[in-house]
Amino acid sequence: xxxxxxxxxxxxxxxxxxxxxxxxxxxxxxxxxxxxxxxxxxxxxxxxxxxxxxxxxxxxxxxxxxxxxxxxxxxxxxxxxxxxxxxxxxxxxxxxxxxxxxxxxxxxxxxxxxxxxxxxxxxxxxxxxxxxxxxxxxxxxxxxxxxxxxxxxxxxxxxxxxxxxxxxxxxxxxxxxxxxxxxxxxxxxxxxxxxxxxxxxxxxxxxxxxxxxxxxxxxxxxxxxxxxxxxxxxxxxxxxxxxxxxxxxxxxxxxxxx
Length: 258
Ligand SMILES: Nc1ncnc2c1ncn2[C@@H]1O[C@H](COP(=O)(O)OP(=O)(O)O)[C@@H](O)[C@H]1O
Ligand SMILES: [Mg+2]
Fold this sequence. Notes:
Elements: E1 9-20, E2 23-34, E3 38-42, H1 49-56, E4 64-69, E5 72-73, H2 79-84, E6 87-89, H3 102-108, H4 118-123, H5 125-145, H6 161-172, E7 179-183, H7 191-206, E8 210-214, H8 218-224, E9 227-232, E10 235-240, H9 242-246, H10 249-255
Parallel strand pairs: 3-8, 3-9, 6-7, 7-8
Antiparallel strand pairs: 1-2, 1-4, 4-5, 9-10
Adenosine-5'-diphosphate binds near residues 23, 43, 45 and 49.
């Protein structure tokens, strides 16, 4: 991939701070994600990576700091409003609804539908049905592309852990995202499915979706990412190409004792 110009950030955060009681989970952290990139975020356990994701996507409020997405501050927005602008994230432990089918889980992610407004439903039933048909077609198309089509009418609870992670990723595509944050997409996933997930990420990226990925599996980071940020003890330790990061003595030291 060609190097993006420095200012072409889809996401940029500076001076982020979050304390939990006495613990400085995130301390004056910054991160920048180039438009069109697959950017990595690594660091030892407890480094503050998930907390940083929560701050970036406004699942928790920072004590200080600012997040700019698509050239606009998003500090004042709720996570669902941020998702409507094209910025969506997954969770370290996949959040799928076990007692709904795989297809129903996909459909829950659709942006605001006409059918949710009572009067519009009453006035325009055919438009609602048309939207529902289109969303279902879209969901089935995505499930087909990730190899989950056979499971469309199974309960999500019957999926393996890895398939649940894949479903959670597939579901983000229902909202036409510009940026997807993935929290440990390979954790607890078998090697075959990890390879498939990596291929999907590369394909989605080629279709124009930017990624920021937390991952402990260094093979995944090295094979996917254009640029990697390293957090340790809540703060920035380094950032650079995967090759630079792999040979950075400070990074190697931070991982000793892991
Ligand atoms: N909701 C919370 N309440 C209290 N402490 C928290 C909370 N979330 C995270 N922490 C603490 O913040 C630090 C960073 O955690 P986390 O962001 O989950 O790290 P990572 O994802 O890099 O493993 C840890 O010390 C963790 O125990
Ligand atoms: Mg984490």
